[in-house]
Amino acid sequence: MAKQFEEKQFNIPDLKGISNQTVEEHLKLYTGYVKNANLILAKVDEYSEDASPLVGAGEEHAYALSEIQRRFGFEFDGLRNHEYYFAHLENGSTPLTASSPLHKAIEEGWGTYDRWFARFKKMAMTRGVGWAVLYYDKHTDQLLNSWIDEQHLGHLTGLSPILMLDMWEHSFVADYQPSGKKQYVEDFFTNLNWQSCEKNLEEAKS
Fold it and tell me: What is the DSSP letter of 99?
């Protein structure tokens, strides 16, 4: 029996541009990902007991098992992506100091912080729903920007997320309208607690 995922609680203060109502509704979606990931794990355990790849006994459950296993990546990544995202917004914004290991790593990868920042924001404007992510690759000791479609398509295997920006419309449309996507990105960085990102990098390197 797999362990159940527990819903985390987040201390998110009033944010610039992003309303409390949007945060509350967004947290409900996170709750749904936790619930659905746990439901799939339970069903996998249930169906695995009598599912058979052979024609005959268990055939119906074998098909259902295959389909819910496919779905698990979406629900699990939806759960975990949001835990990164909401942690970025906890406890008020903090700056990224020039002397921090993360700032230095960004400069090593892109030459200047401003160059990385411009590229990351441009990536965040990718059409469609998904996530803009700053990863750390321990194998090459470098940071990488990458886009994830939906919750799970395009995740870079073995890399550690350092910063995750939710670009699904539910994150911003109620406050900004579709045309305000760019301002949402700007406000996210105004609200960002960079200490959460620095912690992610420290843990990724340990």
Answer: T
Both tokens of 151, joined, read 């919750």
Torsion of CA 78, 82, 84, 90, to 10 degrees: -170
Q: Give the phi and the psi of residue 53 in degrees, each rounded to 5.
A: -75, -10
Note the helical H segments in 8-150.
Answer: 20-50, 59-88, 101-110, 113-124
Q: At a CB cut-off of 8 Å and minimum separation 6, what does 142 contact?
A: 105, 108, 109, 136
Decide: 3 and 144 in contact? Cβ < 8 Å. Answer: no
From the number of C-beta atoms within 10 Å of its C-beta (0-12, 13-18, 19+), residue 70 rates as: exposed
Radius of gyration of the chain (CA): 19
Helices 194-205 and 101-110, packing angle to 10 deg? 80
3-class DSSP assignment, residue 177: coil
**Which residue type sits at 27?**
L
- Reported as a single tens digit per residue, the pLDDT across 88-124 is 999 999 999 999 999 999 999 999 999 999 999 999 9
Residues 6+ positions from 172 with CB-CB distance below 8 Å: 18, 22, 180, 181, 184
For residues 67 and 12, what is the distance between their CA atoms, to the nearest angstrom? 36
Q: What are phi and psi of 182, to 5 degrees?
A: -65, -40
- Listed in sequence order, the residues at least 6 apart from 76 whose beta carbon sits closer than 8 Å to its beta carbon are 5, 33, 37, 152
Q: How many CB atoms lie within 10 A of CB 150?
A: 16
Q: Model's pTM, two decimal places? A: 0.91
